[in-house]
Design goal:
The protein has helices at residues 6-35, 51-55, 68-86, 93-121, 126-147, 153-159, 161-179, 181-186. By secondary structure, the protein is mostly helical. It has a single domain, classed as de novo design (two linked rop proteins). One of its GO terms (molecular function) is oxidoreductase activity. It comes from Nocardia neocaledoniensis. It is found in: Membrane.
Length: 188
Protein backbone atom coordinates (compact mmCIF):
# COMPACT_ATOMS: atom_id res chain seq x y z
CA UNK A 1 0.00 0.00 0.00
CA UNK A 2 1.21 3.46 -0.88
CA UNK A 3 0.05 6.24 1.43
CA UNK A 4 0.46 9.69 -0.08
CA UNK A 5 2.11 12.39 2.02
CA UNK A 6 -0.27 15.11 3.21
CA UNK A 7 0.97 17.61 0.59
CA UNK A 8 0.34 15.17 -2.27
CA UNK A 9 -3.05 14.19 -0.87
CA UNK A 10 -4.19 17.80 -0.60
CA UNK A 11 -2.87 18.65 -4.08
CA UNK A 12 -4.77 15.66 -5.45
CA UNK A 13 -7.97 16.80 -3.74
CA UNK A 14 -7.70 20.52 -4.58
CA UNK A 15 -6.65 20.05 -8.22
CA UNK A 16 -9.34 17.38 -8.59
CA UNK A 17 -12.01 19.70 -7.18
CA UNK A 18 -10.89 22.57 -9.44
CA UNK A 19 -11.03 20.32 -12.50
CA UNK A 20 -14.38 18.85 -11.47
CA UNK A 21 -15.96 22.26 -10.85
CA UNK A 22 -14.70 23.57 -14.20
CA UNK A 23 -15.95 20.45 -16.00
CA UNK A 24 -19.32 20.59 -14.25
CA UNK A 25 -19.75 24.29 -15.05
CA UNK A 26 -18.81 23.71 -18.69
CA UNK A 27 -21.33 20.88 -18.91
CA UNK A 28 -24.12 23.02 -17.46
CA UNK A 29 -23.21 25.85 -19.84
CA UNK A 30 -23.19 23.45 -22.79
CA UNK A 31 -26.65 22.11 -21.93
CA UNK A 32 -27.97 25.68 -21.65
CA UNK A 33 -26.53 26.29 -25.11
CA UNK A 34 -28.27 23.13 -26.42
CA UNK A 35 -31.60 24.44 -25.10
CA UNK A 36 -31.09 28.01 -26.33
CA UNK A 37 -28.63 28.46 -29.23
CA UNK A 38 -28.62 32.22 -28.49
CA UNK A 39 -27.55 31.70 -24.87
CA UNK A 40 -24.42 33.66 -23.94
CA UNK A 41 -22.23 31.53 -21.70
CA UNK A 42 -20.90 32.94 -18.45
CA UNK A 43 -17.37 32.42 -19.73
CA UNK A 44 -17.87 34.32 -22.99
CA UNK A 45 -16.22 37.60 -22.09
CA UNK A 46 -15.00 38.82 -25.49
CA UNK A 47 -13.74 37.45 -28.80
CA UNK A 48 -10.60 35.97 -27.20
CA UNK A 49 -12.08 34.63 -23.95
CA UNK A 50 -15.11 32.88 -25.38
CA UNK A 51 -16.35 29.48 -24.21
CA UNK A 52 -19.51 29.74 -26.27
CA UNK A 53 -17.69 29.84 -29.59
CA UNK A 54 -15.53 26.89 -28.53
CA UNK A 55 -18.53 24.83 -27.37
CA UNK A 56 -20.08 25.03 -30.82
CA UNK A 57 -17.08 23.39 -32.54
CA UNK A 58 -16.55 19.73 -33.43
CA UNK A 59 -13.51 19.70 -31.13
CA UNK A 60 -15.77 20.31 -28.11
CA UNK A 61 -17.48 16.95 -28.58
CA UNK A 62 -14.81 14.60 -29.92
CA UNK A 63 -16.85 11.45 -29.32
CA UNK A 64 -20.26 12.96 -30.04
CA UNK A 65 -20.98 14.27 -26.55
CA UNK A 66 -19.50 17.24 -24.65
CA UNK A 67 -15.85 16.70 -23.66
CA UNK A 68 -16.41 18.02 -20.11
CA UNK A 69 -18.36 14.84 -19.35
CA UNK A 70 -14.98 13.07 -19.42
CA UNK A 71 -13.80 15.64 -16.90
CA UNK A 72 -16.74 15.07 -14.59
CA UNK A 73 -16.08 11.33 -14.54
CA UNK A 74 -12.30 11.55 -14.35
CA UNK A 75 -12.13 14.30 -11.77
CA UNK A 76 -14.79 12.51 -9.66
CA UNK A 77 -12.38 9.60 -9.37
CA UNK A 78 -9.55 12.00 -8.49
CA UNK A 79 -11.63 13.79 -5.84
CA UNK A 80 -12.74 10.50 -4.29
CA UNK A 81 -9.17 9.23 -4.10
CA UNK A 82 -8.04 12.66 -2.90
CA UNK A 83 -10.48 12.61 0.02
CA UNK A 84 -9.34 9.12 0.96
CA UNK A 85 -5.68 10.13 0.65
CA UNK A 86 -6.23 13.18 2.88
CA UNK A 87 -7.48 10.89 5.64
CA UNK A 88 -4.39 8.67 5.21
CA UNK A 89 -5.90 5.76 3.31
CA UNK A 90 -3.21 3.90 1.41
CA UNK A 91 -3.79 2.54 -2.08
CA UNK A 92 -2.28 -0.43 -3.87
CA UNK A 93 0.28 0.48 -6.50
CA UNK A 94 -2.15 -0.53 -9.27
CA UNK A 95 -4.59 2.19 -8.20
CA UNK A 96 -1.84 4.81 -8.36
CA UNK A 97 -0.78 3.32 -11.69
CA UNK A 98 -4.31 3.54 -13.06
CA UNK A 99 -4.60 7.12 -11.86
CA UNK A 100 -1.22 7.90 -13.44
CA UNK A 101 -2.36 6.45 -16.78
CA UNK A 102 -5.51 8.58 -16.52
CA UNK A 103 -3.47 11.73 -15.90
CA UNK A 104 -1.13 10.92 -18.80
CA UNK A 105 -4.19 10.59 -21.05
CA UNK A 106 -5.52 13.82 -19.53
CA UNK A 107 -2.27 15.66 -20.32
CA UNK A 108 -2.38 14.33 -23.90
CA UNK A 109 -6.00 15.48 -24.22
CA UNK A 110 -5.34 18.97 -22.91
CA UNK A 111 -2.31 19.34 -25.21
CA UNK A 112 -4.56 18.53 -28.16
CA UNK A 113 -7.27 20.88 -26.87
CA UNK A 114 -4.75 23.69 -26.28
CA UNK A 115 -3.56 23.33 -29.87
CA UNK A 116 -7.16 23.34 -31.12
CA UNK A 117 -8.05 26.41 -29.04
CA UNK A 118 -5.02 28.39 -30.15
CA UNK A 119 -4.62 27.43 -33.80
CA UNK A 120 -7.95 26.12 -35.07
CA UNK A 121 -10.68 27.81 -33.01
CA UNK A 122 -8.74 30.99 -32.16
CA UNK A 123 -10.36 31.49 -28.76
CA UNK A 124 -9.73 30.61 -25.13
CA UNK A 125 -12.15 29.10 -22.65
CA UNK A 126 -11.49 30.22 -19.04
CA UNK A 127 -13.04 27.06 -17.55
CA UNK A 128 -11.00 24.90 -19.93
CA UNK A 129 -7.89 26.73 -18.77
CA UNK A 130 -8.68 25.68 -15.20
CA UNK A 131 -8.54 22.07 -16.42
CA UNK A 132 -5.32 22.90 -18.31
CA UNK A 133 -3.85 24.09 -14.99
CA UNK A 134 -5.16 21.27 -12.78
CA UNK A 135 -4.19 18.31 -14.95
CA UNK A 136 -0.38 18.80 -14.90
CA UNK A 137 -0.51 19.07 -11.10
CA UNK A 138 -2.33 15.74 -10.99
CA UNK A 139 0.27 14.30 -13.34
CA UNK A 140 3.06 15.43 -11.00
CA UNK A 141 1.40 13.98 -7.90
CA UNK A 142 0.53 10.66 -9.51
CA UNK A 143 3.98 10.40 -11.08
CA UNK A 144 5.58 10.76 -7.66
CA UNK A 145 3.27 8.30 -5.97
CA UNK A 146 3.51 5.75 -8.79
CA UNK A 147 7.16 6.06 -9.80
CA UNK A 148 8.91 8.00 -7.03
CA UNK A 149 10.45 4.87 -5.55
CA UNK A 150 11.61 3.55 -8.94
CA UNK A 151 14.99 3.66 -10.57
CA UNK A 152 15.69 4.37 -14.18
CA UNK A 153 13.77 6.67 -16.48
CA UNK A 154 10.55 6.65 -14.45
CA UNK A 155 12.43 7.54 -11.27
CA UNK A 156 14.07 10.43 -13.13
CA UNK A 157 10.65 11.52 -14.42
CA UNK A 158 9.34 11.49 -10.84
CA UNK A 159 12.34 13.47 -9.62
CA UNK A 160 11.87 16.19 -12.25
CA UNK A 161 8.05 16.23 -12.18
CA UNK A 162 7.62 19.79 -10.86
CA UNK A 163 10.18 21.15 -13.30
CA UNK A 164 8.17 19.55 -16.10
CA UNK A 165 4.99 21.17 -14.79
CA UNK A 166 6.64 24.61 -14.67
CA UNK A 167 8.03 24.15 -18.20
CA UNK A 168 4.58 23.07 -19.41
CA UNK A 169 2.94 26.15 -17.86
CA UNK A 170 5.64 28.43 -19.29
CA UNK A 171 5.20 27.01 -22.79
CA UNK A 172 1.41 27.31 -22.65
CA UNK A 173 1.59 30.88 -21.32
CA UNK A 174 4.06 31.82 -24.04
CA UNK A 175 1.91 30.27 -26.77
CA UNK A 176 -1.22 32.00 -25.44
CA UNK A 177 0.61 35.32 -25.26
CA UNK A 178 2.07 35.01 -28.76
CA UNK A 179 -1.22 33.92 -30.32
CA UNK A 180 -3.24 36.74 -28.78
CA UNK A 181 -0.50 39.31 -28.18
CA UNK A 182 -2.43 42.12 -29.88
CA UNK A 183 -5.29 41.56 -27.46
CA UNK A 184 -3.07 41.30 -24.36
CA UNK A 185 -1.07 44.39 -25.31
CA UNK A 186 -4.28 46.35 -25.88
CA UNK A 187 -5.09 45.83 -22.19
CA UNK A 188 -1.97 47.68 -21.06
Amino acid sequence: MITAPARSAWLLLIAGLAGWLASFTLTVERFKLFVDPNYVTSCSINSVLSCGSIMKTDQAAVFGFPNPLFGIVGFSVVVTLGVLAVVNVGFPRWIWGGLWIGTVLGVAAICWLIFQSLYRINALCPYCMVVWAATPILFAVTTQETWGRSRGIMGILAEWRWTLVVVFYAIVLLLVFLKFQDYWLSLV
